[in-house]
Write a structure and sequence with these properties.
By secondary structure, this protein is an alpha/beta fold. About 45% of the residues lie in helices and about 15% in strands.
Length: about 260
């Protein structure tokens, strides 16, 4: 399933969920995968599955908030096998608790640090090499939550909206450079994070179905990949409504978060 990529592939958040599913889809003979996540046991499990598909696999148990360690790792990997694709997938989620307690400043800060700055820490060090080679592909996994603020998860929405905006900016900057950027905004899919969500989950997909859509968009070099369309269209349409109506409409999506978990 990794047709169209040559060289190395680097993926964060690879120990479980969407990241693990995407890693398995990208694995194959001739592919060198660099997998990053905080949980070493999960990383080893994903690595074994990818090696079983014929890929050469490297792992690093790192927190993407550690900018120096992440930069050192990805640059070392890039020297050994020039990076053809880097996917910033690591993420965490918090939000209003089942007892009605809203997320605090510390939780908001953590989400921005991982979901936005962690992606910058991963991708940023590789940009000079991509520009010099006039080649490379970047995938940024945001969320449909980037398209409108949800009252029960302000930190998550802010972090993903920031990632989407940063991705738009670098995509425009890299135009005609040979480097492609794909902005990714999945809706609901099966995951530990999804299971912590207590509320409606319209148009939910299996993890592998979500990974298949993303993998295809990356291989085709699409500028964006947002799904499912009805949810994307609905959230985007809220921005065109008068604020009182938009606020009332978005409150129909009220939910609770049982616990924050890595994606």
């Amino acid at each position: 399933m990794s047709e169209g990529f040559s060289g190395g592939i680097i993926l964060s958040g690879a120990s479980r969920g969407l990241g693990a599913a995407l890693a398995r889809r990208l694995a194959g003979p001739g592919v060198t995968l660099g997998l990053i996540a905080r949980t070493e046991a999960g990383l080893r499990e994903t690595a074994a599955a990818c090696a079983g598909r014929g890929a050469a696999v490297r792992v690093a148990a790192l927190d993407v908030r550690d900018a120096e360690a992440v930069a050192r790792t990805v640059l070392d990997w890039d020297v050994a096998a020039p990076t053809a694709l880097v996917v910033a997938n690591a993420g965490i989620a918090a939000g209003r608790r089942p007892d009605g307690t809203p997320e605090g400043v510390a939780e908001l800060t953590a989400q921005v640090s991982v979901n936005l700055l962690g992606a910058v820490n991963l991708v940023g060090p590789l940009l000079p090499a991509f520009r010099a080679r006039r080649a490379g592909r970047i995938g940024l996994v945001a969320s449909v939550a980037a398209f409108h603020g949800l009252p029960d998860s302000p930190g998550y929405c802010a972090s993903k909206a920031g990632l989407w905006a940063w991705g738009q900016a670098i995509r425009a900057d890299l135009r005609d450079s040979g480097v492609e950027v794909t902005l990714i905004a999945p809706g609901f899919f099966e995951s530990d994070m999804g299971r912590a969500w207590q509320g409606r989950r319209p148009f939910s997909l299996t993890t592998d179905a979500a990974a298949a859509r993303i993998e295809r968009a990356l291989r085709l070099g699409r500028p964006s990949c947002a799904f499912p369309l009805p949810l994307v269209a609905g959230l985007r349409a809220l921005s065109f409504l008068p604020a009182p109506l938009a606020d009332r409409a978005v409150r129909l999506l009220r939910f609770r978060i049982a616990e924050g978990v890595p994606s």
